[in-house]
Amino acid sequence: MVTYNVSLANKVVLVTGAAGFIGANLVKRLLNEFDSVKVIGIDSITEYYDVRLKYERLQELSAYGDRFVFIKDSIAKKGVVDSIFTDHHPQVVVNLAAQAGVRYSITNPDAYIESNLIGFYNILEACRHYTVEHLVYASSSSVYGSNK
Ligand SMILES: NC(=O)c1ccc[n+]([C@@H]2O[C@H](COP(=O)([O-])OP(=O)(O)OC[C@H]3O[C@@H](n4cnc5c(N)ncnc54)[C@H](O)[C@@H]3O)[C@@H](O)[C@H]2O)c1
After folding, report:
1. pLDDT digits (tens, 9 = 90+) for 100-126
2. Nearest CA to ligand 1 atom 18
3. What residues does 14 pair with on adjacent strands?
4. What number is the average pLDDT over the span 80-95?
5. Smallest CA separation from ligand 1 atom 39, residue
6. Residue 99 pLDDT > 80
7. What share of the chain is helix, strand, coil (3-state, %, to 5)?
8. How far is Cα 121 from Cα 103, in angstroms, rounded to an integer?
9. Which of 141, 142, 143, 144 to mutate to test the pocket of ligand 1 (most atoms within 8 A of CB)?
10. pLDDT tens-digit profile of 48-79?
11. Using CA atoms, how far apart are residues 93 and 136, in angstroms rounded to an integer?
12. Domains of the chain and any CATH numbers
């Protein structure tokens, strides 16, 4: 049995990276397990891997009707992030929008600066300025400490 340390009843949850692998599965689980939860999802649908997979996940989530609101845009745009907070007032934020992968960063460093630095910074700033009860964010899947 899972013990929750955050009450999710009647909460609005913002999930960034909502069309991604973890994001889409999290949205589905939140909507299945908590009848009174509403989820706002944002994803810019990057082409790091086949976007058809992302659209299929979103298609599946559309079955939840107006309990799931999807915004196709980037968290790197401060105005977009701010308007989500002023329009929807999320109390819980889960930041999963990111450029993943290690080797890709050698050839495409811009993508990491945009999503993982600027985008994450915009989320942190919005959580600081609006009333947010809880913020969860993903760490790297590849933390190397001992290689040269
Ligand atoms: N999958 C794993 O095994 C794993 C393990 C540890 C940590 N993580 C971390 O969890 C997070 C999510 O991983 P995932 O496997 O779901 O990756 P994913 O690539 O499937 O999902 C990330 C989503 O974020 C979106 N995105 C990227 N930049 C964006 C931006 N600027 N604005 C809005 N959306 C944007 C992408 O389009 C994508 O759909 C990442 O930070 C990843 O490093 C993943």
Report:
1. 888 898 999 999 999 999 999 999 999
2. 20
3. 40, 93
4. 98
5. 20
6. yes
7. 45, 15, 40
8. 23
9. 141
10. 999 999 999 999 999 999 999 999 999 999 99
11. 6
12. 12-137 (3.40.50.720)
